[in-house]
Amino acid sequence: xxxLLFGASGAVLLASLAAPVQxxxxxxxxxxxxxxxxxxxxxxxxxxxxGQALSLIAGDALEERAVLVINDIENVVPNMEVDSQFxxxxxxxxxxxxxxxxxxxxxxxxxxxxxDEVAHPYTVTTQGALFDLARIEVLRGPQxxxxxxxxxxxxxxxxxxxxxADARVGALVEYGTYDRAKVEGYISGPIAPGLLGRLAAxxxxxxxxxxxxxxxxxLGDLDKTAxxxxxxxDVTEALTADLSATWSQDRxxxxxxxxxxxxxxSGSTTTIPADTAWRITGWELSPELAAVSGRQVGDNPGRxxxxxxxxxxxxxxxxxxxLTSITAWQSFERDEYNDWDGTRFAESDVWFYNDIDxxxxxxxxASQGGGRFDWLVGAHYADEANDGGFVTQFRGFxxxxxxxxxxxxxxxxxxxxxxxxxxxxxxxxxxxxRYEYEERSLTSAGTAVGGVPGGPELRYxxxxxxxxxxxxxxxxxxxxxxxxxxxxxxxxxxxxxxxxATSATPFKPEIVIAYExxxxxxxxxxxxxLNAAVFFYDYTDQQVQxxxxxxxxxxxxxxxxxxxxxxxxxxxxxxxxxxxxxxxxQSLGYKDGEYDEYDAIDGAATDAANPPDGPWxxxxxxxxxxxxxxxxxxxxxxxxxxxxxxxxxxxRAETNYSYRDELYSVSSSSxxxxxxxxxxxxxxxxxxxxxxxxxxxxxxxxxxxxETRNGFNGSARPTTSPRQGRTVGVRLTMDF
Length: 736
Known about the structure:
- By secondary structure, the protein is mainly β.
- The protein has a single domain, classed as Beta Barrel (Maltoporin, Chain A).
- Helices cover 4% and strands 56% of the residues.
- The strands form eight sheets. It has a 22-stranded antiparallel beta barrel. Strands 3-9-10-7-8 form a five-stranded mixed beta sheet, with no helix packed on it.
- It starts with a helix and ends with a strand.
């Protein structure tokens, strides 16, 4: 595998050596590292001045780094994983091992996701197109003293491009393997005195790369459309209004599953052999599931999701401080059909539906800086309604339709403060505090089998009343080096297991005490940037997928709490410009964790100890203390790029690569192998021109890798969700 990495990096280095002798520096060549201004701490400041582990992805680098959906940021950020659970449209975020693995859409994320400072509490709303972004900021570690909601894992901030003071028009057109096409464009500039506007849109089509083993039908076409409008209005010299509206629609195909071993469907004498070809899958929607989901029997697995986001951000200069108000409303409809058994049989087919509405209001008052004491106080309110459920045909129930429907309401209010006091010219004390109160309720009649209600409609309630915060020190070793250390307490909400609401008793909130120390530094006249961090997490009531038993019903898959566990590790990020035009970046993340106290129910032993038809009165547990937590220990990523001028044309050669360690899949009791990914691109355009054309390759060496596995079909060998092989294409960008 190392040979692949060095081969790809070597290709870029050879391109630099092969550049003509007359090559000279241009405005686009990197001569030193830029100071990047971020808003991760709710104020504009240099990223290197933020005393927390922070990774950045520039918006104009997303295509080059193959960040096509939000899941792809895991390939460029150390110690981060983002996967769509069982190939569906429900992404789960994990940072430093903190995060969930569930496919329902009603529980809070351990990682906060924000678009222009507006929280998206349900991650299913983030699976649409990434477009017209200025940057993505990823903060690692508990958050709560600066952001709208409490999180234990960290925060992902998507910052969209603001309207420009001068008139501009831009476009990107891309075409690649399997007829995948993407068109993105924007228009921006002044509309009237004091009023700026920006309109951006994107459309993605094609790309079907899988096929049905029985019919030859294709699967995997994209069908995404999104439009965003932004207005910036200088109401007065002291008051600015930022208005934003985003509409998105995703009617893309889903991901097909492969059979890792021979499979005999329930009640059949036909054995389907293991899939040997990478692209093979299978599906067939039954008439019963087609009828309830509003689909046709011949439809592909896929989704028909639609969202609308509205927000108004008001910023007032009060002279002594800045007052910020953010009012937002989100509406999202989820309609998604998946075939998890990967066959034409109704062994594990599922249809998800959700109707989500979120209103939020945030107020912040922040000092304007310049003195020894910088302060921020704020309050956040959210009112959420999430009505949904799922219908499935499952092997264990003889392909009978099973439906779990629910209505969930959440109301939360938090007050917070974040402060920095400069004790000396180089030493600062950081302190933040948050109090949050939250009420969650879920109403459900349980799981209906074959149209028979599971029971009377019941209401379940849980609440949260917790204090979180952060205290730390920052010491400036020099103007270009910052040491920081601190301890933070993070809290994630409890919630309900809705994929089995026979007994929707809530699980408890989880709490993390996080200890972290790090270094941020620039060296060699701003040509070398080295950032590093180490951490230790003390984890209480960690939320995991587990089992519970109902005396009358038997085994239930539930989200449960682990009393005590811990995680430790660290990251190193390096960026180097050894010569003008050549930029090398590398990052390495490592983490290790285990359960310290965990008596888990042993499903097989409990089933054997009770009558086959119940009642289930005997519960047998296993002591899993000392067992490793389930995440890839090692992640690595890097990129090498070279810019040069030759014959009046600007050239850029770039390669990026990533490695992900092996992962134990709990749902399939098997190991998902480690893998390398390598991408590359070559682009050019006339010097000082407003257009460029390029060639790109993703997964250059056609590496086979998997995202998730499951054992839902009852087979001794699980099914797996494979990822796409090598694709190549062309790209044209224009900016006027």
